[in-house]
Design brief:
The chain is α+β, with helices and mostly antiparallel strands. The chain has 4 helices and 10 strands. Strands 5, 6, 7, 8, 9 and 10 form a 6-stranded antiparallel sheet that branches. The N and C termini lie far apart (75 Å).
């Protein structure tokens, strides 16, 4: 009886363990998620490789700007929201390139000019909430608008207290645009 119980327990644990693990999405699944833009099989294959999905947790494939910017986010099934990771890619000359959408240097230090302008509205103790969503859109001047949340040092990573939008044309130079406490009433950053 004990032997049967051990065998059954081992099988149950193995089945539950494998059910938590998924393989990376197929090309058809990726294409279904990317409904609005048209993408070559080379782009989709490269995207699948670069998404680096490890098989655990939920993932989201999204079109920030159809045909131009696509993203992959993954959130582990267990743990805290700060475990969320997002990778964005821009398509240029039919090639997929990683997109750097934060105004930070290679050492992850926030650009000094950007920081100084945001500090006037958010206070000295603000920082990016790295697990927050980052949405990208384009305005009529062909500038990209990046929308996200920022937090005060006292805020938990899950609970950012401010909305921030900033602009870029090249994903190298970023300009703070506007800030809000509720996402409805905005102050333009000057």
């Amino acid at each position: 009886m004990i032997k049967n119980t051990l065998i059954f327990s081992t099988l149950l644990i193995a089945i539950l363990g494998f059910s938590q693990s998924k393989s990376a999405p197929t090309l058809k699944e990726i294409q279904r998620s990317l409904k609005k833009g048209k993408y070559s099989s080379a782009i989709l294959n490269d995207f699948r490789k670069q998404m680096n999905y490890e098989g655990y947790g939920e993932y989201i494939i999204d079109e920030e700007i159809p045909g131009e910017i696509i993203s992959f986010s993954q959130q582990p099934l267990v743990g805290v929201s700060s475990s969320r990771s997002t990778s964005m890619f821009i398509i240029k000359n039919n090639k997929l390139q990683p997109l750097h959408y934060l105004p930070v240097h290679e050492d992850y230090e926030i650009d000094k000019n950007f920081n100084a302008r945001v500090k006037k509205y958010a206070g000295e103790d603000w920082s990016f909430s790295y697990n927050a969503e980052y949405n990208i859109s384009k305005n009529i001047n062909n500038s990209y608008i990046i929308s996200t949340f920022i937090k005060k040092r006292a805020d938990a990573d899950c609970c950012s207290s401010l909305y921030l939008e900033y602009l870029t044309k090249d994903f190298k130079n970023f300009l703070p645009y506007r800030i809000s406490e509720d996402g409805k009433d905005w102050d333009v950053i000057k």
